[in-house]
């Protein structure tokens, strides 16, 4: 029975990891790494930033990098929201997105 209970959470984590990094190759060095505890094990979440348009200036990259090192933001969407909010506050609104936050997720039981 325990094996069956682990299948769904593991499948969800694998699917979430695949979708969040769809089409983007993980760089050799990432911008941030978080180790989080989940039911039945731990997960390693890696974050990296990448420009998605020609408008991805060094200034926008700097704003996004500063936001990506915030402590306590261990969940993907929280970090993505932090980056988008910081960019918007500095004049890079999300509806004209120039930087995207990508991540990967590895879990162990």
Radius of gyration: 15 Å
Residues in helices, as a percent range: 40-55%
The biggest sheet, with number of strands, parallel, antiparallel or mixed sense and barrel status, is: 3 strands, antiparallel
Helix-strand category: alpha+beta
Task: Give the overall average pLDDT.
Answer: 74
Work out the strand percent. Answer: 25-35%
3D shape:
elongated
| Strand order in the largest sheet | 1-2-3
Q: End-to-end span in angstroms?
A: 16 Å
Low-confidence stretches: 18-23
Q: Order of SSEs, N→C?
A: HEEHHE
The strand count comes to 3
How many separate helices? 3
What does this structure look like?
It contains three helices and three strands, in the order H-E-E-H-H-E. The chain has helices at residues 2-20, 58-68, 76-89; strands spanning 32-38, 41-51, 99-108. It is α+β, with helices and mostly antiparallel strands and 109 residues long. Helix 2 packs across helix 3. A hairpin with a 2-residue loop joins strand 1 (32-38) and strand 2 (41-51). Helices cover 40% and strands 26% of the residues. The radius of gyration is 15 Å and the shape is elongated. It starts with a helix and ends with a strand. Mean pLDDT is 74; it is low at 18-23. It has a three-stranded antiparallel β-sheet with strand order 1-2-3.
């Amino acid at each position: 029975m325990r094996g069956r209970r682990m299948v769904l959470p593991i499948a969800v984590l694998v699917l979430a990891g695949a979708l969040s990094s769809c089409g983007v190759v993980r760089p050799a060095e990432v911008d941030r790494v978080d180790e989080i505890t989940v039911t039945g094990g731990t997960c390693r979440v890696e974050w990296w930033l990448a420009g998605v348009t020609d408008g991805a200036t060094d200034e926008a990259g700097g704003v996004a990098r500063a936001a990506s090192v915030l402590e306590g933001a261990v969940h993907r969407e929280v970090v993505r929201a932090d980056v988008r909010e910081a960019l918007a506050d500095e004049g890079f609104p999300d509806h004209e997105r120039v930087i995207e936050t990508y991540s990967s997720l590895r879990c162990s039981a």
